[in-house]
Amino acid sequence: MTESRRHARRAGIAALVGTTLEWYDFLIYGTAAALILNKLFFPAISPVAGTLATFATYAVGFLARPLGGIVLGNLGDRLGRKTMLVLTIVLMGVATALIGVLPTYDQIGAWAPVLLILLRLVQGFGAGGEYAGAVVLSVEHGDQRRRGLAGAWAPAGFALATLLATGIYQLFLLLPDEQFRQWGWRVPFLLGIVMLAIGYFIRSGVDETPAFRNAKQAEETKTGLFAALRYQPKSFLVVIGARFAENGFAYLFPVFAVAFLTKQLGLSDSLGLTAVIIASAVQVGGVPLFAWLSDRWGRRPVYAAGAVASALWTLPFFLLLETREPVAVVVGFVVGLGICYPAMLAPQAAWFAELFETRTRLAGFAFAREIGSVLAGGFLPLIATALLAWSGHWWPVAVYLGVLTVLTLVALAVGPETRRRDIESAGTRSTVTTG
After folding, report:
1. pTM, whole model, 2 decimals?
2. Which residues of 173-202 are buried (b: 16+ CB within 10 A; e: fewer)?
3. Percent of the chain, pLDDT > 90?
4. Cα distances (angstroms) measured from residue 333 to each of 109, 230, 295, 310, 330
5. How does pLDDT run across 15-29, given as a tens digit for each residue?
């Protein structure tokens, strides 16, 4: 194996581990929010209001992500990808572990939800630069003909994180209810410190990317978010728009749908989690497949197919859930989360990185991506729960996701195809204006 291939593989593993931690942090909170946190941190209000309040704290984590994207993205464009990624993994791992030792409302009263919100803000700040940094690290180290596959390391972390988060909670749900309420829900959060240690060790040994080193030595000195906004506004807006459908469906399946099964349909917690685990296992194989297809056919066609398929699957998905049959429920999750969704997630990584030039790539990618996260995924569980409470039916949720899909298709139509671009000149002022 050549030296460049070794660096690329090491960067890919570092991206995989870090992204797994990022999504583990957010999904473990989302799963806990659907199952237990409303009872522990908002016990003085009605069950529906408690669920809404818990999902509101879930959304708070997303509000901090654009700020993290600005600060950490600029740091990564000025000081290097490696420096920023080591910092993000520490922030996220520590915040997640602290949620695991947080006193509940019964112990410290109103301070409990306040502290929960503060830790969610720290989580969100770290996550604001994590995914973009992991993608840029692996893509800039990757071979030009296989950048889609190189970028797939990071989105594959989403599937692994879903497996970990739901699998671990499935295990602890086997405890008696009282034990799960007292201490069982905490352990998945505390395990974040283990992932932090592993991720820190791996990322400390990764080399800086050649593209960043070359750009830093060049005469061009403009870096960071404001340069990206000034010279590449089209790329910035395309990333935001493309996020709507992808991020919305990312939180429909493992977060809102699990809560829908338990609270609306009266099914067991374990059924929804089992369905997510099986679907995520399928997704682990789907991510590299669709990334490979994006290297052959282009980023936009594969992405668009995934968005349309996800939207079309929404109606059959809810109808399958309403059968209350375990096999039907699993099929609904496998097709939606395991097949349709990764067709968006896989090509997105390389495409977003290719839209920006090297010295503005991380800040532009991170901030635009996190704005999309706030507008789509961050509020999806909260909005979907409110729509369900208002209508008593899931159809407004399906309509809402359809609107998000239309916005994403518009962004895909406007954005350029980038799979053949030179990563060291991708997104320069000339390439952006010409598309």
Report:
1. 0.78
2. beeeeeebeeebbbebbebbeebbeebbeb
3. 25
4. 38, 41, 27, 11, 5
5. 888 788 777 877 787
